[in-house]
Amino acid sequence: MLIIGSHVSFGNNQLLGSVEEAISYGANALMFYTGAPSNTLRKPILPEYLSAAQKLMQEQQIDLANVICHAPYIINLANRSDDEKWQFSINFLQQELTRCEELGVQTIVLHPGSAVGITKEEGLQNIAAALQIILAKPRNVTIALETMAGKGSECGTSISEIAYLLNSVPDNTHLGVCLDTCHLNDAGYDMADFDIYLDDFAQQIPLSKIKCIHINDSKNPLGSHKDRHANIGFGTIGFANLIKIIYHEKLKDVPKILETPYIGQTDEDKERLYPPYKYEIAMIKQKEFNPHIMEDIRSFYK
Ligand code: FE
Ligand code: FE
Ligand code: ZN
Prior knowledge:
By secondary structure, this protein is an alpha/beta fold. Helix content is 37%, strand content 16%. Zinc ion binds at residues 180, 182-183, 227, 229.
């Protein structure tokens, strides 16, 4: 069965709200940040919402394995120019892992980090050192390193960089990978030749390490290093190539998560934005591009 969902919010009702939102999109998977990705303010996990969320997931047959957390992007394990800041990133990621354990979430997606003012090699070494510290504590949560577009000085843009990180810890049982189709395109991997990419990947990393796939089209051409997501079928990757990835036999058990942009009532409307996921998920299930999807979304939320 296709495992598909989207980014959802983790609001006042916490996981319960996230699960309800996912169900409203026809999803059986979901991904959320446990708070604003840009700050450290976090509310404690409330047991009443958690048990209601668990009950709802059971009723709707949403497997906890397909509930993904995304680590906040203020965490930068590559930056060790200031040891205090590096420790802050490590500590905050550890707190997020504890929150995942409280929620029963088994996978957290992490941007490996950006090598600000240092070489990429130094950045990768700093990330590896941080992962060694973090993974020394046994937990039931897997950190899935996201493949990055190469915007600025991002680390983790090539298969070999991800492989280096996976091999840099004594035991990588709880270290995996999150592919992002927009990031792969922008990093220079042609999604029209996804099988070539997957073969290259498998030469260096077992495919079983792929824990999540972010399904996004891209606003920019191959190798542009930009990282701007487009709606499914409206970018340079295109609907047919994304469908092939989503339904790839070798990745059928991996949750697919949409992180495509919200839509305004007009192309210029940046004020009231609506999630495209209900319609994008329906279109993916149909395996047929819906040329009227923007109008459908606008009239549904009007
Ligand atoms: Fe991400
Ligand atoms: Fe992503
Ligand atoms: Zn992105």
